[in-house]
Amino acid sequence: MADYLIAPSILSADFARLGDEVKKVLDSGADIVHFDVMDNHYVPNLTIGPLVCQALRDYGITAPVDVHLMVKPVDRIIPDFAAAGATYITFHPEASEHVDRTLQLIHDEGCKAGLVFNPATPLSYLDYVMDKVDMILLMSVNPGFGGQSFIPATLDKLREARKRIDASGRDIRLEIDGGVKADNIREIAEAGADTFVAGSGIFGKAEASDPNKYDSILETFRAELAK
Ligand code: DX5
Ligand code: ZN
User: Fold this and answer.
1) Beta-carbon contacts of residue 98 (< 8 Å; ≥ 6 apart)
2) How many domains does the chain have?
């Protein structure tokens, strides 16, 4: 069986209780923390920066942190995220003047690097940098907000990305982000994804008063993936 990772997007978490919510969802079996960074410029929303990443580390979160940069320009914030404890740093190629240089910068800062593809962005951005990516993130919604519906054309794009990864022979994660729910995660895995971001599908489902509130949704995801 593929080694599947579940990456809750904290965009949909209760920010007033962020540290506890992240701990709870990890205790329930989530693998990595998906950290959405929006700048009100590249995308029409504003979220969190390195300070919050550092705060989660200081709070004792040791799981990998998957920083999804939806910012333009990208380069100047990368060292700050590396210093704040990011594990992966991914960015949108349209937001960087020099994609190869940005990938190199992320590696130089000691993090794993990835490219993010909007629904209409072609995978050809990968053509000359496959040897420099550790993760390919396909957006299955337009970036900026949680709670949108999965765009079905992404399934074909996943199959194409999976072929490119297999042909490269490299260990590259294929992550999907947007509209991932218990009722489509199996189909998404069959199309080739191995890393699943879910925001509203995890945090939006839980009953606030339930101390083990994330157990059942994570179990449902795992059961779907094991089918
Ligand atoms: C959207 C973000 C996503 C978002 C996913 O720009 O990149 O990570 O939080 O949220 P859901 O799972 O609700 O579509
Ligand atoms: Zn994201």
Assistant:
1) none
2) 1
